[in-house]
């Protein structure tokens, strides 16, 4: 019997374990599998039940699955299973062993945004189901502790000492780590020291659900640097989480009743606006057949040393725009002046941004409000310069308009664009030909941020809550191009949209830390810092912070070769995985990667 050790037992480990179970008949063997994680198997850290019941997913119940379907292109067998919503339908009548979760599962609808606690039960069920489906020749042991390092024994086996004193010996080890803390950077340590020296509060980037917010005092003015999902979680925990109430005075309109324990949150970012709300409607014109322009063959044919902005983004923009117009023409034909077949025939051969293409769109789509404009979407406050009070009103109008677009299927073309962007994200994971500077600045930096801004926002009711908090004076907007200074014993902040300057006694970095092997909160990962990806181009060189892996998930050694017994998957690796669950019927990249890695693991284990 050979031994396989997973370091990390969250959703990624479960997904890989499911693929091992699916492929095992082709690679028959006896396996002794160990999973190491201080958090519950299946759910892991992020989705564990032990967190605030106020925190929810930013995906609808019908859009979350842990099982492959007919859309997935992989070598292993397809083994369908229920999505989160389908699982909820199966257990609704009998309920769960928790009264609050039973109420939630019975109230759940396909377009509901479930709590993370309910998601934890789905993930635990998936893990238990996968384990039970393994043959008797496979044993599974869970170790509720932390792995400290991985070294190689004289016989080639991998030695993994655990925090509880045990050491596991593995024929193969796979790192399936999820969201990881990082050690504070020099800049963060400097701000922390400044805060301590001046009796201020400072919170570095970290996972919001685990942040100690008790240090933030009622009524304290707090600068929140970041306007994405971490901010939304922190906003909820410091308002409703402190006893405040949202009251619906009229359908869709909320009013906030404070408890008196809330701080005042001054929030800003580079764009100065929150992530776009998730849509709560479905496509009216059918799913666009994707990919159309950003295909594997196109990605693989890009020349070495290409530039993302020049060579790749025009293809991505064209793909997303094509998917947008596919929905507009097929779902709302009364708003266009051309048949879709004719529009598609003219659109397809034209390069994105060409005057002829622009002219085609203007002729076929008469209303400017129905045309997609990526530049305006990426810089929503560009050119705006107003007073502080007017900025608050402008931002409220912007957020209200976003809610309106994302909850009214007259704008379902936005969902078409989402599917176009999602398809591109999956294809761009195979892109390896960018010049290093463009890889770091454009793909890892701008593109990932733009994708999250457009496609990974909160449910619309979270933005309604944000509006209510703004009306109540508990949230204040700083605008775009936010800046922060530590000076004169306080924190000062402002932005390029308004001349106003805020003085605060607390600063919170309201964003997730970037993956970094060297600065990881995982002691095991830190021992592998020599295996980080290094990109070099002439005098330009940079460490991306990511652990190098091969296409089948093998870790790359310092000599540049695939390690025969070590594998790794996750956002901290050069897989550059999107931190989101797979949507059904989208040929999700995680399923394809899990299957390829499972097959490589099983082939390796059969030979050791």
**Distance linking N and C termini:** 10 Å
Look at the structure and give the CATH class of the largest domain: Alpha Beta
- Structural class by helix and strand composition: alpha/beta
Mean pLDDT: 96
Q: Which CATH-level-2 architecture of the largest domain?
A: 3-Layer(bba) Sandwich
- Radius of gyration, rounded? 25 Å
In which range does the helix fraction lie?
A: 25-40%
Give, in spatial order, the strands making up the sheet with the most strands: 3-2-1-7-21-20
Categorize the overall geometry. Answer: globular
CATH homologous superfamily placement of the largest domain: FAD/NAD(P)-binding domain
Tally of helical runs: 17
* Percent of residues in β-strands: 15-25%
> In total, how many domains does the architecture comprise?
3
Strand segment count:
21
């Amino acid at each position: 019997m050979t031994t396989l050790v997973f370091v990390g037992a969250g959703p990624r480990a479960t997904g890989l374990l499911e693929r091992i179970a699916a492929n095992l008949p082709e690679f028959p063997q006896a396996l002794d599998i160990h999973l190491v994680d201080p958090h519950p198997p299946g759910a892991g850290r992020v989705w564990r039940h032990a967190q605030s019941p106020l925190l929810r997913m930013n995906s609808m119940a019908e859009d979350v699955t842990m099982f492959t379907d007919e859309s997935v292109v992989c070598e292993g067998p397809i083994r369908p299973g229920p999505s989160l919503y389908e699982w909820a339908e199966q257990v609704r009548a009998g309920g769960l062993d928790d009264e609050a979760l039973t109420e939630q599962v019975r109230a759940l609808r396909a377009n509901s945004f479930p709590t993370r606690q309910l998601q934890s039960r789905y993930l635990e069920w998936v893990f238990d189901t996968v384990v039970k489906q393994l043959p008797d020749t496979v044993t599974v042991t869970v170790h509720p502790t932390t792995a400290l390092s991985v070294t190689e024994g004289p016989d080639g086996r991998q030695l993994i000492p655990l925090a509880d004193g045990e050491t596991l010996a593995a024929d193969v080890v796979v790192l399936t780590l999820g969201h990881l803390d990082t050690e504070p950077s020099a800049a963060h340590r400097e701000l922390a020291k400044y805060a301590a020296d001046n009796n201020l509060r400072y919170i570095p980037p970290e996972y919001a659900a685990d942040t100690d917010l008790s240090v933030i005092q009622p009524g304290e003015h707090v600068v929140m640097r970041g306007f994405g999902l971490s901010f939304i979680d922190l906003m909820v925990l410091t308002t409703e989480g402190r006893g405040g109430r949202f009251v619906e005075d009229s359908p869709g309109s909320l009013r906030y009743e404070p408890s008196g324990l809330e701080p005042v949150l001054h929030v800003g970012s580079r764009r100065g606006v929150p992530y776009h709300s998730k849509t709560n409607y479905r496509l009216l014109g059918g799913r666009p057949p994707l990919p159309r322009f950003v295909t594997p063959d196109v990605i693989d044919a890009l020349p070495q040393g290409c530039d993302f902005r020049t060579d790749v983004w025009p293809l991505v923009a064209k793909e997303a725009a094509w998917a947008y117009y596919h929905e507009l023409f097929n779902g709302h034909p009364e708003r266009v002046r051309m048949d879709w077949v004719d529009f598609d025939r003219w659109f397809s051969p034209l390069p994105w941004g060409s005057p002829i293409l622009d002219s085609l769109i203007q002729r076929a789509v008469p209303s400017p409000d129905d045309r997609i404009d990526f530049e305006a979407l990426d810089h929503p406050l560009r050119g705006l310069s107003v007073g502080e009070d007017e900025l608050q009103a402008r931002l409220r109008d912007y957020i209200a308009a976003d809610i309106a677009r994302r909850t009214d299927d007259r704008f379902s073309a936005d969902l078409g664009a989402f599917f176009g962007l999602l398809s591109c994200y999956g294809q761009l994971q195979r892109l390896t030909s960018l010049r290093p500077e463009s890889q770091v600045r454009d793909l890892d930096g701008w593109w990932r941020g733009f994708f999250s801004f457009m496609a990974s926002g909160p449910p619309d009711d979270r933005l309604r809550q944000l509006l209510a908090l703004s009306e109540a004076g508990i949230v204040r907007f700083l605008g775009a191009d936010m800046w922060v200074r530590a000076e004169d014993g306080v924190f000062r902040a402002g932005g390029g949209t308004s001349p106003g300057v805020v003085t605060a006694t607390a600063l919170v970095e309201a964003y997730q830390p970037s993956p970094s092997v060297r600065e990881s909160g995982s002691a095991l990962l830190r021992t592998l810092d020599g295996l980080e990806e290094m990109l070099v181009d002439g005098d330009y060189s940079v460490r991306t912070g990511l652990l190098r892996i091969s296409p089948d998930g093998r870790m790359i050694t310092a000599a540049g070769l695939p390690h025969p017994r070590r594998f790794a998957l996750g956002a901290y690796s050069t897989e550059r995985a999107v931190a989101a669950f797979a949507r059904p019927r989208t040929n999700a990249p995680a399923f394809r990667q899990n299957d390829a890695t499972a097959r490589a693991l099983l082939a390796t284990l059969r030979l050791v």
